[in-house]
Amino acid sequence: MAGTIAAFHLSAYNRVLLLDSGSVGSGATGVGAGIASPILARKGNPTYRSREALDSLEQLCDVLSLPEQSSRPLIRPAFDTKQISYYQRAASNHPDLAKWIEPGDLSERFPSVRAPLGALEVFRGRVINLPTFATALTRNATTSGCELREHTSLTSWSAKGDEVVVTIRTSNGKKESNTQDESIACRRLVLALGAGYRHFEELARLNLHPIKGQTIRASCPSILRKTPNITGPGYLAFDGDSLVLGSTFTHGVFDTEPTASATQQILDLVVPIVPDVAHATSFEATAGTRVTVPGTRLPMIGPISHSSLVNIFTGLGAKGLLMGSLIGSELDRYLRDPENIPEIMRPSVRRPASG
Ligand SMILES: Cc1cc2nc3c(=O)[nH]c(=O)nc-3n(C[C@H](O)[C@H](O)[C@H](O)COP(=O)(O)OP(=O)(O)OC[C@H]3O[C@@H](n4cnc5c(N)ncnc54)[C@H](O)[C@@H]3O)c2cc1C
Questions:
Q1: N or C: which end of the chain has fewer CB within 10 A?
Q2: pLDDT tens readout for residues 255-293
Q3: CA of 135 to the centre of ligand 1 (A)
Q4: 237 occurs within a structural domain
Q5: CATH number for 164
């Protein structure tokens, strides 16, 4: 997602080459449910610059002519009395973002949902298929002249003077010997590698942290047709005729193998809220790595050395759509002058463990 957002914005004024060691829409982007919620789960606080992020996302969706979202609401059930007060406060402080729904109203509007304490209805929240989003960004970028090379990995780079020389390796088939290496000189490099940062010494020292997550796709039983999108510790999102159920959070892990125990964990979170999910069929689990920035929980963007030619764009965490769109809208400004990057998002290195 980060790479395609960058390519989309930068190709309007620059010659851009977009590389992907796999294909566009893979990585974490191929796993997420695609929920964009401007309200955080636990206390109902708004996400970082939530309204600007929503505006950026909506503008992107308009330009990309992504299909109009269904009018299915997005709700966050409350799980205890503390959360009721947090969510009621959120509704009263941010009436443009959310509204509190009393338990009686909720069961009348959404009979398939069990939320006996009530819920927060999040306005402007939406669900967008992440690979469709990334593919549409790429298509638009290529229309503006961006060149896309899939199955092509960045293997190294070196900044000299006012250019960066990158080496890339293209796989022409399944055999390891069937590869082709090439060097390319460019004016600027944007590293949007997701979990791929770990393969480069210069990036592995950055304050980044992987969190493995799993989702399940299933076909939607007709009984759930009128169910809202639900977010919280467990979530349920509608994507066309499919349901996406999520998700798990396993810290410090890069492997992306889905597991049966994570599937069970997800069902244990979702089925108590929407019991009819038990009627869904054709379950398919996938897992990926969210890259996060400990301490800030915000994206990381900016130069990784004294030279401003080599930049990282990562740390989208679980809020890829909102954070990615927000950073994308300011990326050109950030790259032209790193002083424009809010300090809290500038690259920082990991602190050594104490003791
Ligand atoms: C379980 C789960 C649920 C999620 N749910 C949501 C959600 O509901 N809403 C939301 O907004 N976000 C969600 N997210 C988060 C979202 O998926 C991520 O924030 C976002 O996709 C990250 O995008 P990225 O481009 O940084 O990384 P990735 O999508 O991982 O992309 C990295 C890309 O870099 C490529 N690459 C790596 N190394 C190299 C190299 N050396 N050379 C060339 N290419 C390379 C990879 O092939 C890959 O395509 C979820 C994530 C997970 C794991």
A1: C
A2: 999 999 999 999 999 999 999 999 999 999 999 999 999
A3: 13
A4: yes
A5: 3.50.50.60
